[in-house]
Design a protein that fits this description.
Layout (H helix, E strand, L loop, with lengths): L6 E4 L3 E4 L4 E4 L1 H11 L4 E8 L2 H12 L7 E4 L5 E8 L2 E6 L10 H11 L3 E4 L7 H13 L3 E5 L9 H10 L2 E5 H11 L12 H13 L4 E5 L5 E5 L4 E4 L14 H15 L3 H15 L14 H9 L8
Helix pairs in contact: 1-8, 3-4, 8-9
Length: about 325
């Protein structure tokens, strides 16, 4: 629709199993679905099983009009599943091992990547826990000149520091939340500034050190309802700190994925950085006002696309 190059997304597509219902998720797949809904040519590279949950994932490819050239079918391993247990203290998530997305094969992934010659390659850390998928990602990164966007997702017991270290060295642009940023400070700097004052010189200095240490072009720190801030390798700090929390927060599942999608969409469209951050924050806030990481109806996206295409104000989160 606008001639921008495709965005390739590597990682897990899975099902959150609430026992009474199964909801398709996975941070990369959440992000990819939003991108497709915004009209961005999107290649999702993942792997599912020949099972009922795999059929649910394939149905989402179809609902969002996404090509399945990067979707691999595993004949033996099950589609990724996260068991969600509800309790008095909230939800407990059990991320199962040895799932189909742990075994993404290299040659089919490279073939799909070559076919679209993407402008951006998005990846996270969960799908790197197994050497098979990790090796495929490394081959993709080596084969493509695309800009590399790392959406860090540090999960206890799933992601080791070494994987984070290697991923940071592979990335051009990194997005983290406040907790992940503190983990990076603990691992890689002597500075541990807080994020209560997002524009503090101490925070700017510490983030600039991370940018230099890993030769990054940009570091994005999301602050939940307090907005987001971008630190550039040129020393420029760009902040969007307006609150866009909905009138009623249903859940915050997928808010970070929604932010990443709008950031990459805005980048592809050539929006100014400050405007991109503002729109990403607004859309992430709107996702907090619905149940789940993506809307049940594609009509949810229409007012956003219409206003962004005309340059009008973005609809308020509600």
């Amino acid at each position: 629709m606008h001639g921008s190059k495709a965005i390739a997304v590597f990682g897990e597509a899975l099902v959150d199993d609430f026992i009474t219902e199964q909801v398709v998720g996975g941070a990369p797949f959440n992000m990819a679905r939003h991108l497709a809904a915004f009209g961005e040519p999107t290649l999702m590279i993942t792997r599912v099983g020949q099972d009922k949950n795999g059929a649910l994932v394939r149905a989402e490819f179809e609902r969002y009009g996404m090509p399945q050239t990067g979707l691999q079918i595993d004949p033996t391993e099950a589609t990724g599943r996260v068991v969600v247990e509800r309790g008095a203290d909230g939800h407990r998530f059990i991320i199962l091992a040895d799932q189909a997305y742990d075994y993404i094969e290299t040659e089919p992934a490279l073939a799909a990547l070559r076919a679209v010659d993407p402008g951006v390659l998005y990846f996270g850390t969960l799908a790197q826990r197994n050497p098979a998928s990790r090796g495929t990602l490394r081959a993709m990164l080596a084969a493509s000149p695309a800009k590399r966007f790392l959406d860090l997702n540090v999960r206890d017991g799933q992601v080791v520091e070494r994987s984070v270290f290697e991923s940071l060295h592979q990335a051009d642009i990194v997005k983290v939340n406040e907790e992940e940023l503190q983990a990076l400070f603990d691992w890689y700097t002597h500075d541990r500034p807080g994020t209560a004052d997002a524009t503090s010189p101490a925070l700017h200095t510490a983030c600039s050190r991370l940018l230099r240490n890993f030769s990054l072009e940009g570091l994005i720190v999301t602050l939940g309802p307090r907005g987001a801030i971008h630190f550039g390798a040129d020393g420029v700090m760009t902040a969007s700190l307006a609150s866009h929390a909905p009138a009623r927060v249903v859940d915050t599942v997928g808010a970070g994925d929604a932010f990443s999608a709008v950031y990459l969409h805005g980048r592809a469209q050539g929006w100014p950085l400050a405007l991109t951050l503002a729109r990403a924050n607004e859309f992430a806030g709107a996702i907090c006002g619905i149940s789940g990481a993506v809307p049940q109806s594609m009509e949810f996206y229409q007012p956003w696309r219409a206003r962004w295409q005309t340059g009008a104000a973005t609809p308020a989160a509600s």
